[in-house]
Design a protein that fits this description.
Cobalt-precorrin-4 Transmethylase, domain 1; Methyltransferase, Cobalt-precorrin-4 Transmethylase, Domain 2; 29% helix; 2 domains; 243 residues
């Protein structure tokens, strides 16, 4: 069939996967992905052939999937969250011209910004910005400009990849930038292992967030000037109820 599905798996649980994603995986001969994501779904599709590569082998992974599809097989490239939000659909589309007989279809999934917001409360009810703190593909100087612009505009800010072993101070640096325009008491939230074993949430202030521990499985939410705590949940009012 020469078909490549680029599938967003959602937050990680089978229940959080869309029916369209399940249908694409069921229709595939081969499922390709990062090792961690393959392990999340392997038990639910026992009759499929799986191929995986470790982290930072994205180009190799996409070429592998396209080459298998070019052989006439149906392939799914799986990503966590949504395939088009820090996922693999862009790279798949970029390399597709090298494989003219292959057709690509992206199957969207629930991104961490949405699933994380759901378990924290309702932090994204108004305008928001999504920024990754990983500088592997984006220079820190550009990340800094985006943080400052979003903070000055009073956006709610959702941070992906807030820290890692090599970037242990990036979240605190990001908070310092936001603090140029936001109050230290700004309501913030952390969602970790969303939809997976060990799921955790924490609601805290911006000054507390600066010294909080996070990792690559954490998604961070920095509220705007209107965000508040209601019954322990992080909520950004939309304006339906006026004081």
């Amino acid at each position: 069939m020469n078909k490549l599905y680029v599938v967003g798996l959602g937050p990680g649980s089978f229940e959080g996967m869309t029916l369209a994603a399940q249908s694409a995986l069921n229709a595939s001969d081969v499922i390709v992905g990062y090792t961690v994501y393959i392990d999340l779904i392997r038990a639910h599709f026992p009759d499929k052939e799986f191929r995986s590569t470790p982290m930072r082998r994205e180009v190799d992974r996409v070429r592998m999937a396209l080459e298998i599809a070019a052989e006439g097989r149906t392939v799914s490239m799986v990503c966590s969250g949504d395939a088009g939000v820090y996922g693999m659909s862009g790279l798949c589309e970029a390399l597709l011209p090298e494989y003219p007989g292959v057709e690509i279809e992206t199957v969207p999934g629930v991104s961490a910004m949405l699933s994380g917001a759901a378990i924290l409360g309702a932090p994204l009810m108004h305008d928001f910005a999504v920024i990754s703190l990983s500088d592997l593909l984006t220079p820190w100087e550009k990340i800094e400009k985006r943080l400052l612009a979003a903070a000055q505009a009073d956006f709610v800010i959702c941070l992906y990849n807030p820290s890692s072993r090599k970037r242990s101070d990036y979240l605190s640096r990001a908070c310092d930038l936001v603090l140029r325009f936001a109050s230290p008491e700004t309501v913030c939230g952390i969602a970790r292992n969303i939809g997976r074993e060990g799921q955790q949430t924490r609601v805290l202030t911006l000054s507390e967030l600066r010294d909080a521990e996070t990792d690559m499985f954490s998604t961070v939410f920095i509220g705007n000037s209107e965000t508040r705590i209601i019954n322990g949940k992080m909520v950004t009012p939309r304006g339906y109820l006026h004081d």
